[in-house]
Amino acid sequence: MSLQLRDANEQIVAWAKTLEDRVAEKTAELQRAHSHALRFEKMASIGKMAAVVAHEINNPLSGILTYAKLLRKWVERGEAATEKRAETAQCLELIAAESRRCGDLVKNLLTFSRTSAVNIQPSDLNAVIERALRLVQHQLELANIQLQLEFEANLPLVLCDAPQIEQVMLALIQNAIDAMPKGGNLWLVTRMSAVNREIEIEVRDDGMGIPQDILPQIFEPFLTTKESGHGVGLGLAISRSIIEQHNGKIEVQSEAGKGTRFSLVLPVAPVVNGARRREVLVER
């Protein structure tokens, strides 16, 4: 009986070893497949990025080249300072505008891919949003958009990089402006969460809304509902990246023809020895 038990135990050990070897083999295969899939996904993303960047930069560069050739012709003929003076100024302004477009595109790409340190410190969220509003106040007036502010007073400080949160608010407000070409209403709301130690931000408009087939991918890079030349679809992707790096959340609800609502949640700054922590550096 002892010999039989020993043989049985040896068989079990052998099967266990065989099973471990097969699990290790399959795990290695899965890891290789996963690495291959990641490389493929990365190459596909790079290819998509290259195609979008080439297309978006090529258009303004073509305009710059065309107007530069035209200006050179007028200068050689001596017409730039005489009968073509007004047209010359207009061409130069167009060249400057198209150059800014190229610069903005490169800046957005760098923002989307950067891994530098950010400065995190307790900030007044209402004040951050007000700074963003001052930058687009003139645009809101020109677009005939009525601003509806509902800021909860005496909110606790939020632990964040204030310029980055301001960038997120500018992106959301700009999207709302673009969604209301004939005017409308823009609501900006801040409030303390009733459940957690978090502050909620709501950016809502009554514009054209987002098609339902696009809504699930709205935060993906290079996805845009704007006309060609008016954006490359990085604003919302950058915004989501910033909010997630702040341990927050961003969600969207929209219905075509009835407007869009973005909801953001950011954690309140922790209290240390009865006072809010003043400054922390984090890597992202």
How much β-strand is present in the residues?
Answer: 15-25%
Shape, per Cα inertia axes = flat
Q: Work out the count of structural domains.
A: 2
SS summary, helix count: 5
CATH architecture of the largest domain: 2-Layer Sandwich
Largest sheet: 5 strands, mixed
pLDDT < 50 stretches: 272-284
CATH hierarchy, class of the largest domain:
Alpha Beta
List how many beta strands DSSP finds. 10
Q: Write out the CATH superfamily name of the largest domain.
A: Histidine kinase-like ATPase, C-terminal domain
Widest β-sheet, arrangement of strands: 2-4-5-7-6
Straight-line N-to-C gap: 64 Å
Q: Give the fraction of residues assigned to helices.
A: 40-55%
Category from helices, strands and their pairing: alpha+beta
Mean pLDDT across residues: 80
Helices, strands, pairings?
Layout: H1 2-77, H2 85-113, E1 117-123, H3 125-142, E2 145-151, E3 158-160, H4 162-178, E4 184-192, E5 198-205, H5 235-245, E6 249-255, E7 259-267, E8 271-272, E9 275-276, E10 280-283
Parallel strand pairs: 2-4
Antiparallel strand pairs: 1-3, 1-10, 4-5, 5-7, 6-7, 8-9
Any overview of this molecule?
This protein has 284 residues and is of the alpha+beta class. The protein has 2 domains: 1-113; 118-283, Histidine kinase-like ATPase, C-terminal domain (Heat Shock Protein 90), CATH 3.30.565.10. Helix content is 53%, strand content 20%. The chain is built from 5 helices and 10 strands, in the order H-H-E-H-E-E-H-E-E-H-E-E-E-E-E. The strands form 3 sheets. The chain has a 5-stranded mixed beta sheet, with helices on one face. The protein has a 3-stranded antiparallel beta sheet with strand order 3-1-10. Helix 4 runs antiparallel to helix 5. The protein starts with a helix and ends with a strand. 21% of the residues are buried.
